[in-house]
Structure formats: C-alpha cells, structure tokens
Write a structure and sequence with these properties.
126 residues, alpha/beta, 2,3-Dihydroxybiphenyl 1,2-Dioxygenase, domain 1, four-stranded mixed β-sheet, 17% helix, Glyas_Bleomycin-R_OHBP_Dase, VOC family protein, Glyas_Fos-R_dOase_dom, VOC_core
Length: 126
C-alpha cells in the first residue's frame, strides 16, 4: 500500500489555490471552484483541495510536508508573505518543524525529520 493523496476542505478555492502554489506545490488539476490537485515537488504523493460549505469542527486537519531545506524554505516563504504560527523549532520527537495554517484553518507543518521520520529510537521492532 502507498499513500496517494491527502485532500483538505476549503470554503473558497479561489483563495486557497494560490496559497498552496506559494508554498511550492505544482497545480496539476484545476477544477475551480470545486476541486484542485497538486503534485509535491518531491516524491509521488499528491495533495488536493475540495470545496465544502462548512469546515470541520475541532482541531481540524494536520498536513505534514517534509522539507530538507526547512529553515531556508521558511525564510523564503516569510519574504513572500506567508505567516507562521511557529518558526522552525527542534521538537522532542527529533524533528524540526515550522507550523502555519492555510486560509481555512487546516494546520500545515513543514518539517525535516531525516532518519527519525520513519526510524526514531523508539520505533517498534517486528
């Protein structure tokens, strides 16, 4: 099994689509106002947005995008007007993360986990 894509809800794709392009995703399906799909610059996963009339309640959705050049990428995004809730910070789970929200409140985490992404010291053994 392989993860194909993540889809997040949006109230207004006319606003959401440029936001994700500014993050660095490549638009590959433009079915605005109802749907948009992107390729990630690395790997095979895709990311999409679909129009909803109401956003989910509670904490919402968390989407993690790994960036080898996390600090440099955050600096560039800040210069391009992207606002962050948390700038790059080393976490106790051995990842470095920066946190922001998209225009619909979905939580976006840009991170670098390196070898610890899939193989932290506390990984279960089979």
């Amino acid at each position: 099994m392989n993860l194909n894509q993540i889809t997040v809800p949006s109230l207004d794709l006319h606003k959401s689509v440029p936001f994700y392009q500014k993050l660095g995703l490549q638009l590959i399906v433009d079915a605005i106002p109802d749907y948009a799909r992107y390729e990630c610059p690395e790997g095979d996963a895709t990311f999409s947005i679909h129009k909803v009339t109401e956003l989910p309640k509670g904490d919402g959705i968390y989407v993690y995008f790994e960036c080898i050049d996390l600090d440099e990428r955050v600096t560039t995004l800040l210069k391009n007007g992207i606002e962050f809730d948390e700038l790059p910070k080393d976490k106790k789970w051995l990842w470095r993360e920066a946190r922001l929200r998209d225009l619909d409140g979905n939580q976006i985490i840009l991170f670098h986990g390196g070898v610890n992404r899939k193989n932290p010291p506390w990984r279960l053994t089979s």
